[in-house]
Amino acid sequence: MKSEGVWESCDMQWCLSQAKGSLDxxxxxADIISTLEFNHTGxxxxxxxxxxxxxxxxxxxxxxxxxxxxSEYNVYSTFQSHEPEFDYLKSLEIEEKINKIRWIPQKNAAxxxxxxxxxxxxLWKISERDKRPxxxxxxxEDGRYRDPSTVTSLRVPVFRPxxxxxxxxPRKVFANAHTxxxxxxxVNSDNETYLSADDLRINLWHLEITDxxxxxxxxxxxxxxxLTEVITAAEFHPHQCNTFVYxxxxxxxxxxxxRASALCDKHSKMFEEPEDPSNRSFFSEIISxxxxxxxxxxxxxxxxxxxxxxxxxxxxxxxxPVETYQVHEYLRSKxxxxxxxxxxxxxFECCWNGNDSMVMTGSYNNFFRMFDRDHRWDVTLExxxxxxxxxxxxxxxxxxAGGKRKKDEISVDSLDFNKKILHTAWHPQDSIIxxxxxxxxxxxxxxxx
Amino acid sequence: xxxxxxxxxxAALLGGRNPVVQHSSAIRKLQLSKMAGADGDDSLYxxxxxxxxxxxxDVQLRLNSIKxxxxxxxxxxxxxxxxxxxxxxxxxxxxxxxVLLALAEQLGNFTMLVGGPEYVHCLLPPLESLATVExxxxxxxxxxxxxxxxQEHSPVDLEVHFEPLVKRLASGDWFTSRTSACGLFSVCYxxxxxxxxxxIRQHFRTLCSDDTPMVRRxxxxxxxxxxxxxxxxxxxxxxxxxxxxxxSDEQDSVRLLAVEACVSIATLLPxxxxxxxxxxxxxxxxxxxxxxxRYMVADKFSELQKAVGPEITKNDxxxxxxxLLKDCEAEVRAAAANKVKEFCENLPEDSREQIIxxxxxxxxxxxxxxxxxxxxSALASVIMGLSTILGKDNTVEHLLPLFLAQLKDECPEVRxxxxxxxxxxxxxIGIRQLSQSxxxxxxxxxxxxxxxxRLAIIEYMPLLAGQLGVEFxxxxxxxxxxxxxxxxxxxxxxxxxxxxxxxxxxxxxxxxQNTIVPKVLGMANDPNYLHRMTTLFCINALSEACGQEITxxxxxxxxxxxxxxxxxxxxxxxxxxxxxxxxVLDSNALQTEVKPVLEKLATDTDMDxxxxxxxxxSVLALA
Lengths: 449, 623
Prior knowledge:
The structure holds two protein chains of two kinds.
Chain A: H1 2-9, E1 14-20, E2 33-38, E3 44-49, E4 53-59, E5 73-80, E6 85-87, E7 92-94, E8 100-104, E9 111-116, E10 121-134, E11 158-174, E12 184-187, E13 193-197, E14 201-206, E15 209-218, E16 231-236, E17 243-248, E18 253-257, E19 269-271, H2 284-288, E20 292-295, E21 301-305, E22 309-314, E23 323-326, H3 335-340, E24 350-352, E25 358-362, E26 367-372, E27 377-382, E28 398-400, E29 409-411, E30 423-426, E31 432-436, E32 441-446
Chain B: H1 11-14, H2 19-22, H3 25-36, H4 41-53, H5 59-67, H6 69-90, H7 97-107, H8 124-130, H9 136-150, H10 155-170, H11 175-182, H12 185-188, H13 194-208, H14 213-229, H15 232-247, H16 252-268, H17 271-277, H18 279-286, H19 291-299, H20 301-325, H21 330-338, H22 340-345, H23 349-368, H24 373-382, H25 386-407, H26 412-420, H27 422-429, H28 432-446, H29 451-468, H30 470-484, H31 490-507, H32 509-522, H33 529-561, H34 568-581, H35 587-601, H36 607-619
Helix pairs in contact in B: 3-4, 4-6, 5-7, 6-8, 7-9, 8-9, 10-11, 10-13, 11-14, 14-15, 14-16, 15-16, 16-19, 16-20, 19-20, 19-21, 20-21, 20-23, 21-24, 23-25, 24-26, 25-27, 25-28, 26-28, 26-29, 28-29, 29-30, 29-31, 30-31, 31-32, 31-33, 32-33, 33-34, 34-36, 35-36
């Protein structure tokens, strides 16, 4: 088969290493994974769900030296980050769903991350404890009190080794700064500030100060009836502390320079691709809305995801992307039904690999796509337990866009739109990827030769 | 006494030199029992509790124990403190920040408790672990304590124990330890040998070019302090190059800290070196691409001005200041506007007036009509100060039009800032020049739709009254002051009441009797019960200032009459008022007039009225 021939010619083949989560088809709403994020070394992977929980997985240290097992991740810590709340002033329910997790670059032996729901951002500390104090003067270790008259000497407690305990503790709560729903948080390269973006505004925070933040972007029109676009995502440049971008529902990306002024209402660059008039339709604006924006690790490029494609932009060229990859072009004819079942509003995210040579994003039917920028090939893989055996290379999938369906191809009409992969993450250094289906987590690694 | 108490508190320790000893009753008990030769076991009990609570689940109890750490140490004796307590504390870094903060602070005063300067190095391990925690306040406190105890190290111990700790922190894996190291170089540098000095300089250099911006920020913020303890030659060779590098760092947050260092470095260098070593960097900072760096320059301008001296100020800083006043970013202009007065004051006297008139005043004139209200209000808070510098004629000719323009500004804060600084102009040209414009401005603020603005102007009334004099006040402002008494916002009515009291203190009881008291008492018949209560609040505030005569003859009858009010809130406020003005009244009035009324109120049907009436009776001792 031609497609597989192309596939085999490139160096990277993927094996399923772990599938986590319940096998049950009956999905509890709270278990739906809503965000994924590797820390800066890739040793920890954090997932957030609609139930407000965060689960942190740790790469098995012993297995690290055995390459074929190095992608084994096990639960390190689980904690409830957000609880459902009710805003009594506005009569609004505030969901506990975790919208984004961002790790803070490590500063001491503990790990820190920011997690956010629609309104409130929290800074969590995840730390290990392997010692505990022993020895009381007035009671026994089990809590029974001693007769005070038997206390004839003072005893200072001593720390003794104990089983490793991982604790997650909330360190800071950044609340009451967002009127609309927070969609992004991003830590600045100065490691002391971060931004948080909602539908209409972007605020700048200091990591140690919770009672005030600075509004740096505000696109709210004086009259809400004139509202034509919303902010969909925002991110800081990985190295330049003064640069950040935000994407909009109109398909544009604005880059702002915080050096120029305190309020970044005026962008320094605007990235926008002129619309192809031949493709113009009722859905044009909806599908051009950007659901995710990510800088490359090098800081030279950024990637945006809209409904049907992934675009790579050179920061030095605003007029058009340098690369465009079709994720599922075969859906263009299906937009009408995707509009009716609301799928057209799904927010797919995208990610870079460690050296920026490949990108990955999700699709429907538990398919996800990878694009190799240097070799110009792409592949569709499926996250499923049934179709993959541990440590066996998984076979690429192909969707038949029309005409006669070949063997091994799947027809567009039989795609399951309820199974979607919105969140994917790539290990920052290694060939290990993670994708989240509704309530399952799939970890893949490249096939070692 | 059992041996377990250790060496016990030494005589020197209890000699009162160490304040930590005095607060502890437990210790005193311990001493007493020791002296009396009684069975010491009882006295162990409170200490045992304190030690156990070091690991209590309740943070408050742990905190409490840590705060009494000196008591525990004293009971254990120096030996056991060193061998048992300190190792325990070294491992206790998992605790809550507030506990760690208290611990870091305690350890800074612990030298005597571990056996004096000779053993002070035993305190280094716990402080070292505290210097690596992620919470900045804890780290800073640990560094502060380390700096403190560094002074108690002998020169030998400093090299054997303290300096290796600094090196360990400086080369630590985590940036938290490296940032802490930055604050320790300057305390050990002056007291170590020249080889160790060279090593310290090398460590500091390394940290100035650390990979993480946090460490570079910590180094930049300690650069000035480190420069102060360095030999001048090294300042010129080492510090200047580090300073130049940090001032052109890629991170805005590092560059802006270099501006602060600039002040200290400039103070250290001889005048003739400033031009070549410091000024290029300072000029670059004043024109930095990032507004935050320029803001920092504006914010530190007075310090910079003093550090570089009059000649450089004339040639360099004046144009730089002009640029900052015209900056494209409002935050920068506001910071610069704040410094206008201080900058002008510190200009060399011989050319001060000429520089202000030709260079600064034109920029100031533009700022008066700035588009940003924060800039205008920053300027308004200092601009009046220029009049003392420029003298009467210049003020009338050049500044007065600006004051008048600001008094008419659309932003209330600008007007308020002018009004609140009127005293400066008063000294130079007298307030009469302004009064024609002042009045409409005050009236407008007094009637502003925002109650916080009204509140602010009320607070300036006593000041204005003092400067404008009683006639002007009676004629123009008295009505305003009375109108606030019936404002619909309670905070304004309350402030208005307080204002009346201050006015009476200023103008005297006679004035009060003629102008205020009749109006206040008239409100007692108002149909609105809130206004009737205002009468009571005014009486509470005024009785003392008005004195016994007016209070007894004029106010008391009104209060007593109001005890029949149909609104319970008024009635219980009558009780409260009587309690308040009671001390001013003579005892005859108290017994014959107040007492019957309070007794009647004490049988009121309303619970609150009863309560306050009874309270008044007992406070005034009328029962």
